Amino acid sequence: MPHDHVIVLFVLGLFASTAVAQDTNIIERPIDEQEAAAIGRGSTFLVGGGVVWQAPATFTGGGDLSILRGYGAVDFSTPVDRGMAVNAGIEWDGNWYDFGTGTPLGNAIGGADPWDTIVNATVNVGTTIRVDSDWTVLLQGFASTNGEDGAEFSDTITGGGFGAFSYRMGPDFNLGLGVIGSSRIEDDPLIVPVILIDWELEQGIRLTNVDAPQAFPTGPGIELVFDVSKECHLAFGGRWSYQRFRLDDGGPAARSDGVGEDQSIPLWVRSGWRRGAARMDVVFGFNAMQELTISDSSGDQLAAADMNPAILLGAFFSVDF
Description:
CATH class: Mainly Beta
Structural class: mainly beta
Helix content: under 10%
Distance between the termini: 48 Å
Strand content: over 45%
Mean pLDDT: 88
Low-confidence stretches: 1-21
Radius of gyration: 20 Å
CATH architecture: Beta Barrel
Number of domains: 1
Shape: globular
Number of helices: 2
Oligomer: single chain
Order of helices and strands: EHEEEHEEEEEEEEEEEEE
CATH topology: Porin
């Protein structure tokens, strides 16, 4: 049964793009002085993409799973007034699950694969307002479709918003608070308070919300970033990943038009290079505490299964104009 209350989570650090209906890049780190000064100077257009492979790993109850994920994103931002900019973006990700035989989720529905290809897309529109030299306000609204390939489109739609403010505590320290709210498929809304941070601990070392390329699935997370040179940096980070999606009407009746859920805590090392307008990042890490659930069309849970840690390998690119 869906919960009869609104779920509220407090998120900080690892548990702090976006714990909404899907992983997206709604959560932003507080803007620094250089970015603040850029508001009002001109429009920007960013395009990015990437891929992450989750190596085969076993469920604690038997069977295994590997996942290939692809990402794409487009974002446009333009100033509309002194100290104010508006932005709009589109994000897409495809998730190809390869379940082995004998998984706990498969056993719960007669041995069939729980799901196959999951496709998510999000459209977001927002604004950044620099109130004065210290205060900045961030507002964002989004609509998403989250479902297995072949699912009824009208049953895959969710939506919500993000609002936050940040304050410049010092020349190298920006701190902010915000909240994300989103509807969920066959469940109560998800509300997540978040802390935004961008703190230069010393020259070339920063603690910040994920400072990743455009299509990287930041979600709610944090990174410790080391600037190796003007063009290269190394980051250690983690986040909470959450996806909930509608299934198609195929397979056993128990899972027809049902709901799948995939949540975990990815931990990674990321190396990034920037040359002019282009950026390239490679990622190595582990997916920890991954739990998958499958529910029927009303949201009643059929089975849940924990996975052992899995290796993650990924590469991302982005270009801004």
